[in-house]
Amino acid sequence: MISRLILCGLMSSIIFFFTVVVKNFSPTSIIYAAFLIFIYSRMTFSERKKMGSGVVYRRIFQTVFAIGFCIAFISDLYAERGSMAITSQAMNNSELPFCHIAIPQVLVPFLITKSIIFPARVSGMYAAVSSMICIWLAVTLTVGRGWCSWICFYGGWEEGFSHLAKKRRLNLIPKNKEMREIHFGFFFFIILASLCQFACVYCEWFCPFKLTTEFFPMNSIPSLIAGVMFIGLFLALVVVLPILTKRRTQCSTLCPFGAFASLTDRFSLFRIRIDSKKCTGCLNCAKSCPFGAIDILTIREKKGQPEITCAKCGECINACPQKAIRYEFRFNSNKEKCGCGKRKLPRTKLGQTIQELLEPSELFRFAAFSFAVIMSSGFVDQSLGIIFKAVKEAF
Fold this sequence. Notes:
By secondary structure, the protein is mostly helical. The protein has helices spanning 2-21, 27-49, 55-80, 88-92, 103-113, 129-142, 146-150, 155-161, 176-197, 201-206, 221-245, 249-253, 256-264, 284-288, 296-300, 315-319, 334-337, 349-357, 360-394; strands at 270-274, 325-329.
């Protein structure tokens, strides 16, 4: 209990600074700060009653973040350009905001040619290449692919749609392995195509979130085809399939950043561990995993951890009736990996509190939500201001 109060106090301080102080104590920033403190507190204390139950509040946060980001981003585009279309001036001046999805497409051409193929400034502007690379490195070394389930400002759309329906209408669990193969196959295709074309091919042709951010003017046959593809992919992979499958289909089949983050996740501090001795093979974890990172073979072969595409969302922890799944540090000893070791509880109250503070699940949640707070504060605060202004003008 004391450790959770300490973590909530520390998180409240982070939220207060990045959300309220930075925004000069605006009414909308105070409202959003209260929302964030509520989400983290409920997330933390619900875990005390049932391990993994905090995922409900993670879903709420990520959905709100995605909607708030799009409202703020589109508002900025209209204020600057008068539309969501990318102007030739912005392209020529390299003034486009750099998106994290473009990182794997940019890295390989940069290593070979020392040139940035994305039309964005390297530094000195909003969402510059250098700032996004620094954020990616920090996230990679801490929460890894946890970015996708906690921090990504696009993933909330799928997160929301995948929980609209009560029942799954389309079961993809037997095809999880094939879906992962498609994901990485598409990823390597995008990298090679970007290198050959010297352009971000995914961004130009396949990104479904162009529909909710910015897009190239549809004034030619190729751009019209690309526009139709954007709309079709958004409706199919972000709306319809998540509703039918109750999983994040675009994130687990198409997103090149998701595949790239899966490959670099081994450098992160945290991972998910499945205790094969406690596991009864009910496959509730596989059914609940929105990224298809647990399948029938994962459990039958007692691999002891999800597959490479795990985004550490915690849904499997919440679904496991045997409490056989948990967060752990990647550098744990072999004895701890197999679940054989039992840690001794410290005798003093202070020792117990420190041990609870250093629990991987607590530290992971704290780190992931801290990044999410920092990334979301400006966008959601701005979107709340836009919404309140629109409501005021309407009435």
